[in-house]
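=== RUN LOG ===
request id: a7f3
mode: sequence -> structure
chains: 1
length: 253
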Amino acid sequence: MRTLRLHRTARTSALATAAVLAALSLTACGGGDSSAAGTPAPVSDAPSPQPANDAKAPAEQGKDAAGSTTSPDTGSAPDSADSAPAAATKKDSGSTHAEPAANTSKGGDSGVVTLACHGGNSKVTLKPVTRPLNHMLLTVTNTGSKSCNAYGYPAVRFGEAQAVPPVYEESKPQAVVTLFPGESAYAGVMTNSADGSGTGGYSTKNLTVYFQGRDLSGSTGQGAKVPLSEKVYVDSTLTVTYWQADMADALMY
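=== RESULT ===
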């Protein structure tokens, strides 16, 4: 009987041990499965929202970038670029083409101008100036239909003077002054000395201006009688300048 009980006890223990081992085996398998299944889960969960955010971010950034770059381009930049060339073209065409057209309408000559200005195609005036002292401004204006040249310097005759007054050689321009119809040239006239050193002074209201030709020898064409509003006092220091294109240049001497 004792032997049989020992056999049963041993068998029971063996069965219990087998059951424990089976349970442990199942637990180990279950734990491995859960860890194997659980490990990929965080990996798959973590990347899934990331691509969605990344895909959305470039779209929003692209949209913002497109909006920021489009606004300036369609705004002031093209307008200023277009307006600047338009304004520049208009200005250039006016300066390079309008002047020759105006000269032609005034009777501008094609080719070299050789006609001398004189009393028959020009008007002459004499006006006092405040500076320099004892100076007056002689102006010749082309009243004809063709361009003319103001050659050399004016030969002025106050009253019944018999001699032509001298010219300031320093005032000789680099080129002959050409006058289109309506344009003017200028000459300065020192009527008398400021310090009273001049001699043979007299006053007159009569003035005649004669013009030089291309060869600068003697006068050419008609003389111009210049009306004077009041008498002008002249003496032996009476001097003139060459014809100038600019009024200021005529009054420098």
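=== NOTES ===
Residues 1-12, 20-108 have pLDDT under 50 and may be disordered.
Residues 122-250 form one domain.
=== END ===
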